[in-house]
Automatic annotation (TrEMBL):
Residues 135-493 form the Glycosyl hydrolase family 13 catalytic domain. It holds the Pfam family Alpha-amylase. The keyword Hydrolase applies. This is Glycoside hydrolase family 13 protein. CDD domains: AmyAc_CMD, E_set_CDase_PDE_N. Signal peptide: none annotated. Keywords: Glycosidase, Hydrolase. GO terms for molecular function: hydrolase activity. It comes from the Bacteria.
Length: 581
């Protein structure tokens, strides 16, 4: 056994409370290097003879390591523990002291999980695990009220630019809720709705007022109420890292400089505010002078922003917050933000925009989840860009799953495109067959899927601003076959709990191969997903048992145990095996 590969530490993603009674414990070994991992565990205040054993199973693997896991329910909500490793004739024990040859025989030196305190349990909202989100960029979704159009509004459907307007508003969303209901989504993520000067609204002027070109606060309340009647949750975008240049405190600093009562609301390096060699003399989002960075450590700033978070939940009834540029805001602010939001609505969803490893925000004291761009990049590299084969897709996703506690994986916000990226169809080279495979993977994988508006009817587009085209509402110009596929994939996910919270195991993911199969299982219900990204007809041999077709690209497919099952180029199928219990 390679000792250097062995790893465990208490807390974080290695030993954590999944609920008030259940503890998840993980251990890492070199891939295919260890045959058996056992956990010795017990209460440190009881005699050694009362210690118990349980065998760990491989949760997932990446290219270097196997990640083992077990679930236990300590009788007294605390325990000490060590690991017993076996490979052939070799046997090691692993404790806080590392790998040793001496068998475990006393509590001293074991790992310690002191107590499963109720307040420390990392909880995510149950409804998020059932959700399929739909992202709406409000200015481009639908113009329902021309009376609130911006000056020089352009005809609907024109070429999107960084500074032009087409008149999308909340009334437009309200007018087209039937589209969302028909599609099957049950949650909306709105890009910013509050007063701002730009079409994207990430330069906030007033955090307590809906932008006048979208409607007003009463209109948003009406929309949220109608969504709730339809079983649709609503999540807003919180831009708390920075404000806009027209935000009153910043306007005051521009006027009064260091003498402004708001001088400490921002991170100013030099007065008067200026731009030197293209760099503002104050901190901003990126180096955008119209987006000055807020000082979220300042008591008055904190009070104002936390009041905003509470206001829209209590007064309008929104169900969650997506947090823009979340990694550049201090952790303490997010801890207090969570307390305020969860007090106002205990099952509100708190989602951070972070593009990289996010473990430090996912310990139960800050976010429920993050926008899972690590997932996005891996999936696109396999389906859209052909940079990965099946083996490396499985390895990369395995490493990602092992990076976080199960709660974080179940509530992760999985997306394939957004207002910040080229559209999925464009990324897939305009090939709707490839797009369908990627979407089906999204709908059958762990985490909460999100669809970017218009993907379901074939909207394409390069990066910003081209990815922010106006939604197409003329049925004759919509791809209705693609819409029907999205409907089917969404309905499948909503109908099958195993596709949402079941275990996942890749059963065919080979080097140099673009055929992918994996199983999802929950309470004895098994589903097998097969996706053929290649140009060739492929055959798969099904595990023994009676399998039935839940969804397939081949309407005439026949499943028999006597022969292999063929899957056509760019074909897919989801098979169900009845519970044998």
């Amino acid at each position: 056994m390679l000792k250097e590969a062995l790893y465990h530490r208490p807390k974080l993603n290695w030993a954590y409370a999944y609920d008030e009674k259940t503890l998840h414990i993980r251990f890492r070994t070199k891939r295919d290097d260890v045959e058996q991992v056992k956990l010795w565990y017990g209460d440190k205040y009881l005699p050694w003879e009362r210690m118990e054993q349980v065998e760990l199973k491989v949760l997932t693997s990446d290219s270097l390591f196997d990640y083992w896991e077990t679930y236990i329910q300590p009788r007294y909500r605390r325990l000490v523990y060590g690991f017993d490793l076996i490979s052939g004739d070799e046997r090691l024990w692993y404790t806080e002291r590392g790998a040793v040859l001496t068998p475990l025989s006393e509590h001293v030196g074991l790992f310690d999980f002191p107590f499963m305190n109720k307040v420390d349990v990392y909880r995510t909202p149950d409804w998020v695990k059932e959700a399929v989100f739909y992202q709406i960029f409000p200015e481009r979704f639908a113009n329902g009220d021309p009376s609130n159009d911006p000056d020089q509004v352009q005809p609907w459907g024109g070429k999107p630019e960084r500074d032009n307007f087409f008149g999308g508003d909340l009334q437009g969303v309200l007018n087209h809720l039937d589209h969302l209901t028909e599609l099957g989504v049950n949650a909306i993520y709105f890009n910013p709705l509050f007063q701002a000067t730009t079409n994207h609204k990430y330069d906030t002027k007033d955090y307590l007022q809906v932008d006048r070109h979208f409607g007003d606060n009463a209109m948003l309340k009406k929309l949220v109420d109608e969504c709730h009647l339809r079983g649709i949750r609503v999540m807003l975008d919180a831009v708390f890292n920075h404000s806009g240049k027209t935000f009153e405190p910043f306007v005051d600093i521009l006027k009064n400089g260091a003498d402004s009562p708001y001088a400490d609301w921002f991170h100013v390096r030099q007065f008067p505010l200026n731009i030197v060699d293209g760099i503002p003399t104050y901190d901003t989002f990126a180096f955008e002078p119209i987006m000055p960075k807020l000082n979220t450590e300042h008591p008055a700033v904190k009070e104002y922003l936390l009041g905003v978070a509470k206001y829209w939940i209590e007064e309008v009834g929104v169900d969650g917050w997506r947090l823009d540029v979340a990694n550049e805001v201090d952790h303490q602010f997010w801890r207090e933000f969570r307390q305020v939001v969860k007090q106002a609505k205990p099952d509100a969803y708190i989602l951070g925009e972070i593009f990289h490893d996010s473990l430090m925000w996912l310990q139960g004291d800050q976010f429920d989840a993050v926008m899972n761009y690590r997932f996005t990049n891996i999936v696109l590299d396999f389906f859209a860009k052909k940079k990965l084969d099946g083996y490396h897709l499985a390895c990369d996703l395995g490493g990602l799953l092992a990076s976080y506690p199960q709660q974080a994986n179940e509530a992760a916000f999985n997306l394939l495109d957004s207002h910040d990226t080229p559209r999925l169809l464009t990324l897939c080279g305009g090939d709707k067959r490839v797009m369908k495979l990627a979407v089906l993977f999204l709908m059958t994988y762990t985490g909460t899927p999100c669809i970017y508006y218009g993907d379901e009817i074939g909207l394409d587009g390069e990066g910003d601003p081209d990815c922010r085209k106006c939604m197409v509402w003329d049925k004759e110009k919509q791809d209705l076959d693609l819409f029907t596929f999205f409907q089917s994939a969404i309905a499948l996910r909503k109908a099958i709990p195993a596709l949402r919270t079941g275990s996942i195991k890749f059963t065919h993911a080979m080097e140099g191969d673009l055929l992918l199969t994996y199983e999802r299982e929950l309470n004895g219900e098994r589903y097998l997903v097969a996706l053929n990204r290649s140009e060739d007809i492929r055959s798969i041999k099904l595990p023994a048992g009676g399998w039935s077709v839940a969804l397939s690209s081949d309407a005439g497919i026949q499943i028999t145990e006597s022969k292999d099952t063929e899957i056509q180029p760019y074909g897919y199928m989801v098979l169900h095996k009845e519970n044998e219990a």
